[in-house]
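3.2 Worked example (two chains)
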Amino acid sequence: TTAVMCGGCLLLVASIAPNLFAVTADPKTGVGASPNAAAEPSSKRRRLVLLGALAFLLLLAEGCAMDWSSLHAQDRLGVSNALGALVFGAFVTAMTVGRFTADAVSARKGAVWVVRYGGVAATVGLGIVVASPALPLTMVGWVVFGLGLSGTLPQVLSAAGNVAGATGTDFSRVVGCGYVALLAGPAVIGWLSKLVTLNLA
């Protein structure tokens, strides 16, 4: 099934690719910029690269938590499938609450504050998860991790959309960096867990 789907998609991309290079740039959005377009200012490019790297790291963390939090609890603590599902539920609930409240916090404290201290909280939460010997403490760790992580990505994507001179294409590149990590990160954790413990991975 994978071979058929990948093969079909590769043929589709190969047939469409020449048209993508022939499209002229839209002056309003920048979508379809030609290879001969004027070079971007280095400050704009640097800012977009940094925001893309942040989006990559944040969605890497989110993807790993979404895919591995339940299994991590089962593997490390020896809990049942049902209790492992509760761990996942705690993380997702914290993410949901955080996403709904992040805008209000950002309006009061600023986007940089949300990203900076949200990152600190997420780091502390993940540290608790990795070190915890008991299920209740592990759940607390995932909640802290989810609350810290939840508000960061929206602020990063908002910043990418507001970079001076940024186009829709530029924004899609930042988002694309994040979604590569969201898809690939959990798989890398799976491979690493064959070499080391899941907790270390």
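3.2.1 Second chain
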Amino acid sequence: MDLGINGKIALVTAASRGLGRGCAEQLAAEQCRVAICSRDSGAAEQAAKEIAANTGAEVVGFSADMSRVDDISRLLAQVRQSLGDPDILVTNAGGPPPGTYASTDLELYEEAFQLTLMSAVRLIHGTTPAMKANGWGRIVAITSISVKQPIASLLLSNMARAGLTGFLKTVATELAPFGITVNALLPGTHKTSRIDQLVQDRAAREGKSESAVAAEMVAAIPAKTLGDPADFGAAAAFLASRQAKFITGHSLLVDGGHYSGLL
């Protein structure tokens, strides 16, 4: 299927690896002109080169920390200078550290708020004026299955991503008249370095081996396998497509059937 986004400018944050990279790769495969970022400038530049070599698309990499206001402002300016105003925005950021209510210090709440919620708010605030002027835009936020089904020992992530979901649902209605869609992708357990971190944390807390914890995670997924970031990226590319113009304010689970609720 031709998704109708050839030549569109896409910005994907935190995209040197994992789910962000999966999204960047799929948008590049659709021949979008793609900007990515990472806190590690070398990792961003290397990922951009690899994605460009694999897809033939124009891909540029920048250094930016999504928890820093100045980094986000600088990133948006660099993308405009290099490629132009983004038509497609995929917001992503590394998750806050694991922890329970009892183990989480108060100062960590503000850090999680800035990283996980406000980074997306700032990116959307910075890109929507041009989208409005053009009468077309696609915003896809990577959140988590935890906004529907909170995950034990991920207190900060559960809190911040739920708040972000409320923001996205609200602005989706405000931006719809301008031809801009706003949706969220809710990943379950995918094969990423974030999952490696969570496996290590849980193994240490429960006194189990990492292999045993990883096996339990897979067993809990009805599909009996970890998610593939490339498949996740394909879902993001569809939500960014011409055909998805009537889908907005939606939170799409990509979880192998893990979520157990009805709604």
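3.3 Remarks
The beta strands are 9-12, 33-38, 59-63, 88-91, 137-142, 180-187, 251-254.
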